[in-house]
Design goal:
- The chain is an alpha+beta fold.
- It has 13 helices and 15 strands.
- The chain has a five-stranded antiparallel beta sheet. A four-stranded antiparallel beta sheet has the order 6-9-10-11. It has a four-stranded parallel beta sheet with strand order 13-12-14-15, sandwiched between helices.
- Helix 1 packs across helix 4, helix 3 packs across helix 4 and helix 5 packs across helix 9.
- It is globular and about 70 Å long.
């Protein structure tokens, strides 16, 4: 605990509270201090002050105040250790690696790091395939027909998994053990257990990131009439579908700022809404909203607009989502779009 405490003290001493809070609140110099509109309650006249010398903030309207850590804890809805890490990263202060208590923890952390690395490599591979191969050009043409320009494709990291069956496998195999590749979910093993092959083939790939922005899975759409139309990564040590909302890594700031989220069904839905300039959109990536996803949303807002597909499955999913959200004390509205 002493080491954690000393690191927190070092971060607090080195952190510029004006810079950190300025990422969340538009601040204006006022004498020795800085003022702005309080992010914790609605106001039109600034009553929120940041004191750079004392390294504290205080709102004369609602009474909230504290240091840089308490501000981040309130904004990010996170515990103290996470707030220390966030402030350190914002200020460019290296975060010490946590010491594993047991060999099992060390092994587990090494595995998670390797799986993250595999996904980063796979992401680079898929984007190169989309950009530089004949199959990829056909996939780009499909995406352009759907209204996605080069800027959008690059922003959302959309790629292409080739039809060969083992192209990604051959790319990854020199660097990683077979067991780890299968555990990652991007490589599969046949029923006999003798042959490995690419899980995603002839599909457009959508990287799925956790809320901190690390790619942990892929959602892939068939190019053509292949079934299933959508194929996702399986559950892995770094990915549980019920714990992740697509686009949350980019949407959390707009959600917090506007204090509501728009919940849609799939990747293309979220991308279309975000492209229209509405950044506070997330997708449940399927027709079942899970309780952990609701708790993740609750860290940033308690107001949600549900906008699922207008088909029968979408209507059923909307009703189920409404029930779950209301059970968790959310303020919920439904945006019903006409069927095309």
């Amino acid at each position: 605990m002493a080491e954690a405490g000393s690191f927190a003290d070092r971060v607090k001493n080195q952190a510029d509270i004006v810079r950190v809070i300025g990422e969340y609140v538009r601040l204006k110099k006022s004498g020795q201090n800085f003022t702005g509109l309080c992010p914790f309650h609605g106001e039109k006249t600034p009553s929120f002050a940041v004191h750079p010398v004392k390294q504290i903030f205080h709102c004369f309207g609602c009474g909230k105040g504290g240091d840089v850590f308490s501000f981040v804890m309130e904004m990010e809805k996170c515990p103290f250790p996470e707030a220390v890490k966030i402030v350190a990263e914002k200020c460019g202060i290296p975060v010490p690696r946590p010491k594993e208590r047991t060999p099992e923890e060390r092994k587990e952390n090494q595995q998670r790091s390797a799986l993250i690395e595999i996904h980063r490599e796979a992401q680079s591979f898929f984007t190169r395939q989309l950009e530089s191969t004949a199959e990829g050009r056909a996939a780009r043409a499909y995406l352009e027909d759907r209204g996605l320009n080069a800027e959008t494709i690059a922003k959302f990291g959309i790629g292409y998994a080739p039809s060969g069956g083992d192209v990604l496998l051959r790319h990854l195999k020199p660097k990683y053990a077979e067991k780890l590749l299968v555990e990652s979910g991007v490589i599969s093993r046949d029923q006999s257990g003798a042959r490995l092959f690419d899980r995603f083939r002839k599909r457009i790939t959508f990287p799925i990131a956790n809320e901190s922005g690390k790619i942990v899975a892929f959602g892939c759409r068939a190019l053509g009439d292949d079934l299933p139309k959508y194929l996702n990564s399986p559950e892995t040590p770094i990915y549980s579908k019920s714990n992740v909302l697509y686009h949350m890594d980019r949407a959390k700031e707009p959600i917090r700022r506007q204090d509501f989220a728009i919940l849609v069904e799939g990747y293309m839905d979220a991308i279309a809404v975000a492209r229209a300039g509405i950044g506070n959109v997330v997708a449940s990536c399927g027709t079942s909203l899970a309780e952990p996803q609701i708790k993740l949303l609750g860290r940033f807002t308690k107001r949600v607009i549900v906008n699922y597909d207008p088909d029968v499955a979408g209507q059923v999913a909307t009703e189920r989502s409404l029930t779950l959200l209301l059970e968790h004390d959310f303020e919920v509205r439904v945006l019903a779009l006409p069927a095309i």
